[in-house]
Amino acid sequence: MQHALTARGPLSIAELAKGVETTSAAATQLVNGLVNVGYVDREPDVGNRRAVRVSLTAKGRDRHRERILADALAEPLTHLSTGDLAIAADVLDRLSGIYDEL
Q: What pLDDT digit, counting tens, does each position of 31-77 carry?
């Protein structure tokens, strides 16, 4: 769902349901959960007063990027030990801190 919202912008529940190949009822339940955790917002649809449009929040966009990165790194990192991953995470945290100070 987050991929559909990232790719196509604010969508109605019906458009979301079609994009993720599910029912409107299931999409509504999923949207409710995503609203509760702050990943999406509902906005009135200016073209249809009975409908809403769903869009990603900044938190939702960040989470989507994290998932894409995690998926991309999952396979290449499988050969590393837990200790190696801890060292790499520490280095990345330090680099992130330096970058944030720039």
A: 999 999 999 999 998 888 888 999 999 999 999 988 888 888 888 88
Q: Do residues 10 and 43 make contact, with C-beta atoms less than 8 angstroms apart?
A: yes
Residue at token pair 């280095």: 91
Q: State the Cα torsion 18-9-46-40 to the nearest 10°.
A: 90
Q: Which tokens go with 77?
A: 């990192």
Q: Which two tokens stand for residue 25?
A: 């009822």
Can you spell out the DSSP letters for the chain? -HHHHHHH-SEEHHHHHHHTTS-HHHHHHHHHHHHHTTSEEEEEETTEEEEEEEEE-HHHHHHHHHHHHHHHHHTTTTTS-HHHHHHHHHHHHHHHHHHHH-
Cα gap 3→64, rounded to integer Å: 7
